[in-house]
Design a protein that fits this description.
Layout: H1 10-17, E1 21-23, E2 30-35, H2 44-57, E3 62-64, E4 70-76, H3 80-89, E5 105-106, H4 119-132, E6 145-148, E7 162-172, H5 184-188, E8 194-196, E9 201-203, E10 223-234, E11 246-247, H6 255-272, H7 279-286, H8 288-295
Parallel strand pairs: 5-6, 6-7
Antiparallel strand pairs: 1-2, 2-4, 3-4, 7-10, 8-9, 10-11
Helix pairs in contact: 2-3
Length: about 300
């Protein structure tokens, strides 16, 4: 019930949805609250606070969303304000809805054996600068960002409005290749971009996804590391309509470069996106090459 003893009105439901409370269709007056986790990571005291809040103000049930926020379920309308106040005491906030930058998703690339970048720290930087920094900026539609540690794409960065993927670009000195019958580079390549030809290694540069697993595998030093960095994909989406994002034609070598691209993408979307359209539609309407050049500052 609402504070005056009546069921929440449609206006109430719309208002609290903008705050991060989604109406639970199985009840008349309860809502599911999305607690922001800053890329899916929580400290023990924060977890305890969420559990306490779920038991004090909701049904006690907790669920994870697809974007790594925590959903505290079945909070009566009258409990919304005290629930928010309780979480605020523990440094936690509700959100993740509306036409704005959504919570950032990241894989465990910081600790994963395949991770090429510090996904946890970088996604936290993105969270602070864009989820929080742009929190009051209304966009044409929601804008999702994901950070993946390597081309395994576990968090599907290329299916987000903007995705970042760690890169390890190999270098090749084929003059050192001895044409070994069992090629360690061929064995290391998970996608077949490097294969032993008639007399030496053949590397398909267009096929290579820069996972870096071949680097250092040749005992004769054929493959080394050219650089580590970040690939940025734009225009991905999933849901009722899907689109695979396209990679910008540049491997960035610093976090600040990537942050500048994100800022340009959001600014372009804010200023030139049509109301109700996703970023993928904006990119398609304006033309990928045009958008790419503008994001790269050309």
């Amino acid at each position: 019930m609402s504070m005056n003893g009546t069921l929440p009105t449609p206006e109430d439901i719309k208002r609290v949805k903008g705050l991060g409370f989604l109406h639970d269709k199985t009840t008349a007056d309860c809502f599911n609250a999305r607690v922001i986790t800053r890329n899916g990571r929580l400290q023990p005291d924060e977890i305890r606070a969420i559990v306490d809040a779920a038991e004090k103000f909701g049904s006690g049930e907790i669920a994870m969303t697809t974007r790594l926020t925590i959903e505290v379920q079945r909070i009566p309308f009258a409990n919304i304000e005290p629930f928010c106040a309780f979480l605020a005491e523990h440094g936690l906030e509700i959100g993740g809805t509306g036409p704005k930058v959504r919570p950032v998703v990241a894989c465990k690339g910081t600790t994963c054996q395949y991770g090429l970048i510090d996904t946890v720290a970088f996604s936290r930087t993105i969270h602070e600068r864009f989820y929080k920094g742009w929190h009051d900026v209304r966009l044409p539609h929601k804008f999702k960002i994901a950070v993946g540690g390597c081309p395994n794409n576990c968090v599907k960065p290329d299916l987000n409005d903007l995705g970042v993927i760690g890169q390890r670009v190999p270098s090749h000195d084929l003059s050192k290749c001895r044409g070994c019958k069992v090629c360690q580079i061929e064995k290391a390549c998970p996608i077949g971009a490097s294969r032993l030809g008639e007399s030496r290694l053949d590397w398909n540069e267009e096929m290579c996804n820069h996972c870096g697993r071949c680097v250092g595998k040749c005992p004769f030093g054929v493959v080394g590391e050219e650089k580590r960095g970040y690939a940025v994909y734009i225009g991905g989406r999933w849901g009722k309509r899907t689109a695979q994002g396209r990679m910008l034609a540049h491997v960035f070598t610093s976090e600040e470069e990537v942050l500048e691209v994100i800022e340009r993408a959001l600014t372009l979307f804010r200023d030139e996106g049509n109301a109700g359209e996703r970023f993928s539609d904006t990119v398609s309407r304006l033309g990928f090459e045009n958008v790419q050049n503008r994001l790269l500052g050309r």
